[in-house]
# Entry
Amino acid sequence: EDVNIVEEISFDFSKYGIANNKSDDDFIIDRKFPIFHNVKSILEVFHREMHKKPELVKQLLHIYQVQCYNNIEGHERGLRKPFIVLDGNDKIKRDIVGKALANVLGGYLLAMPPPSISKLAPLFDRGSTLRHAYYSLANYIAACNVRRLQSQGFAVILKSYWYDQTAFNLQKSYTRTKDIPPLNDKVYKFPTDLLAPDLCYFILAPPSPKSGLVTFHPFYKTKRTVIYERFKTPAVMEVNFQALGGKEQVVNYIIKDIYMILGKTCDLSSASQVIT
# Structure
């Protein structure tokens, strides 16, 4: 049975309304390319616009409720397994690196949006606020899946996250790189109610042949890479695929980084030896 979870949560719609761009915790920029900073503002959009896609929204919210509220997580003891986010300008190379990292860490590589809701994506109209809210809620569903796997003793590599959607909307909102919000602007603030990754990497790589792109400047800063550099809490670390020499070198670099940064705070006991 479909459940409208929005009705079960108390909202102050004057504070979290879609047109209120003054709230620090609301979604910001503009109505066309919203950037959400908490789950309440996402759910309020579904409440406000449910009449446009009632059955679809109810189905999505039911899945959210089941995966994030009805499942009992295992009990974590001692150090937890790491949660790593991977993004990049070339999804094919990002996924290759992600698969290798998951193998080395003895963990899982998760896709975005989560498989449980991926079939719903094409049903939301392109450019609609509902579609933006769908992708934003996907982050919270993914976070629940990450927590569940961590509680079962697995490391998790997630392909893209909140950063990716924020960067996409900023790219659409600002035509010129020089006009994007400056460093330390609140737009780059990671949501406080969303599970933060232990580490996040942006794989800067030459485009794969299937992408149709033929030119690549490994040290040229595009609008997208500049935006990623401005995420600070947690920060996104850029890894240059071409400069390091390829997949194995990139995987080695990241694994060594993980050991150096997370060796004392995360359980890396399932990790195999670094590739040589």
